[in-house]
Amino acid sequence: MDRFQAMQVFTRVVDANSFSRAADSLGLPRATVTTIIQNLERLLQVRLLNRSTRRLSLTPDGAAYYERCQCILADVEETEASFREAARAPRGRLRIDVPAMIGRLVLIPRLCEFHERYPEVELAIGMTDRPVDMVREAVDCAIRIGALPDSSLVARRIGTFFGVTCAAPSYLERYGEPKTLEDLAHHRAVHYFSSLTGRSLDWDFVVDGQVTEVKVSGVVSVNDGDAYLACALQGFGLVQAPRFMALPHLESGALREVLPQWSPAPMPISAIYPANRHLSPKVRAFVDWVAELFAGCPLLGGSAAVDHCCNYQGKPGSNTLRSLVEQQNLVESVPG
């Protein structure tokens, strides 16, 4: 006995409320439909349908079995549909949202590669440092830095965000260079505040393998990555800037790293999307592509980024940084 066919026949009989109409819709003889239901009841050892000359009705066992059959058949159909969909080339409009600094420095310079690989996908890219409501604003996929408290979203770890504590030479000439974390009490910082809460983000350092928060006073706060770095270049104060953004200025001497023995705690970079039953081909294509992009990007992806960061520092604490990143990799979000 084909149990899957029996489930299909049974649910069709219930939906049609008729053996004859179910047989016609399935292209089977009525006698075959009747036999299949009888054999199914014999297998389950329960009566599923009450039959009369005028109508059919479900027994309590039949109602329970019908509900389970609907779920099983729907899962099978959805699984088959997802593979049929995946076999087609990704197409359609894809709306993504990314932090402005990552969009400008990482994604935009490589967009032609994505278009050449997926010519039928139309990208709509939002670049903002404010949090977005992905469902309400119809965003298909977003890139986010740091912890992801919203459990309704699926997250795939694509990289690691490294920070660097630095300042312009003009600031250091005026205020001196801090040598210890305690020295920060006599300095001022440019702060970065959350667009969601309006609260300035605390500074932190990895000290002996533990993340330690340090409060530093400041005279200016911004909520844009480019503005944050620009304030540092103007000598407004110390910053904890993204290393991949600060690196050209560190190499040119426009910024100088301070307290290199205590690095800011690295943070995960994730591609996130709503937790649908299955992932659409266009979202899957973008997430796979951006993960590949970050993996090859110095200071943003995987173990190569850790090696680059540690080698750049060349200072005590590099092994601590590597250890902390490895710990974060062990607890990263489950890939979709």
Short description:
With 336 residues, the protein is of the alpha/beta class. The chain is built from twelve helices and 14 strands.
Overview of the structural elements:
The chain has 12 helices and 14 strands. With 336 residues, the protein is of the alpha/beta class. It has 3 domains: 3-87, Winged helix-like DNA-binding domain superfamily/Winged helix DNA-binding domain (Arc Repressor Mutant, subunit A), CATH 1.10.10.10; 92-160 and 267-330, Periplasmic binding protein-like II (D-Maltodextrin-Binding Protein, domain 2), CATH 3.40.190.10; 163-257, D-Maltodextrin-Binding Protein, domain 2 (3-Layer(aba) Sandwich), CATH 3.40.190. The chain has a 5-stranded mixed beta sheet with strand order 4-3-5-14-6. The chain has a 3-stranded antiparallel beta sheet with strand order 12-7-13. A hairpin with a 2-residue loop joins strand 9 and strand 10. It is elongated and about 100 Å long. The model is unreliable at 302-336 (pLDDT under 50).
Order of helices and strands: HHHEEHEHHEEEEHEEEEHEHEEHHH
In total, the number of domains comes to: 3
Question: Quaternary arrangement of the chains shown?
Answer: single chain
Given helix and strand content, the structural type is alpha/beta
SS field, number of helical segments: 12
CATH-defined fold name of the largest domain: D-Maltodextrin-Binding Protein, domain 2
Mean pLDDT: 83
Note poorly predicted spans: 302-336
The first-to-last residue Cα distance is 37 Å
Largest sheet: 5 strands, mixed
| Relevant CATH superfamily of the largest domain | Periplasmic binding protein-like II
Q: Report the radius of gyration as a whole number of Å.
A: 29 Å
Q: What is the class of the largest domain in the CATH system?
A: Alpha Beta
> Would you report the number of β strands?
14
Strand neighbour order, sheet with most strands: 4-3-5-14-6
